[in-house]
Specification:
Blueprint (H helix, E strand, L loop, with lengths): L5 E7 L3 E2 L3 E2 L4 H12 L6 E5 L13 H11 L7 E4 L5 H14 L4 E8 L1 H15 L4 E4 L6 H16 L6 H15 L1
Parallel strand pairs: 1-4, 1-6, 4-5, 6-7
Antiparallel strand pairs: 2-3
Helix pairs in contact: 4-5
């Protein structure tokens, strides 16, 4: 039997608000854009991506699962949504999403990522340098604060030096997010 290559949408999480709510200023906007793409009937699966990275007063459910539930309530069949719920950053969004697709024996024809344009730059860098995969970037327009722009600029530069996400800075970010999730 010949296996068909699949068209995939990846929606990485950003913020989660108190009591497991999608942040209306960013994560929800990404989900809405992903839903609109899905409704074009050009895709086979959606991968939601994001783990537990806030303290328990804010988040007790992985971001990917919250996003998946939102997409299901908006009409997407649950069998078409894969929830990658371990990641804590862009590197692990990619690593765990690709691992999940491989585990499900899903071959990728195209990989479309829905995020803010600054985040998409980092996705493109990681995919091209580490996986030799050309991705389709779908930017979502929402306002970032000054602090977030500086952070994104720093991370853009950082990704050139830490090709696979194993550097000290990235490890500290993951550890900090893990600690928040268990408090």
């Amino acid at each position: 039997m010949i296996q068909k290559f699949q068209k995939i949408i990846l929606i990485p999480s950003h913020d989660i608000e108190r009591l497991n709510k999608l942040s209306s200023s960013n994560t929800l906007q990404r989900c809405k854009k992903g839903l609109k793409l899905w409704e074009s009937n050009q895709y086979d699966y959606i991968v939601t991506s994001g783990g537990l990275y806030n303290d328990k007063s804010i988040q007790t459910v992985p971001a990917a699962d919250i996003m998946k539930n939102w997409l299901i309530t908006h009409g997407i069949e649950k069998e078409k949504i894969l929830s990658e719920n371990k990641s804590l950053d862009t590197y692990t969004n990619i690593h765990y999403a690709l691992s999940l697709l491989k585990k499900k024996n899903i071959k990728i024809a195209s990989f479309t990522i829905v995020s803010h344009w600054t985040h998409l730059i980092r996705f493109r860098i990681i995919f091209l340098r580490n996986y030799k995969v050309n991705i389709i970037c779908i930017p979502v327009k929402y306002q970032l604060g000054t602090k977030e722009y500086f952070y994104e600029f720093f991370m853009f530069l950082y990704h050139f030096f830490d090709k696979i996400g194993n550097g000290l800075f990235e490890k500290k970010i993951r550890e900090s997010r893990r600690k928040k999730a268990i408090t």
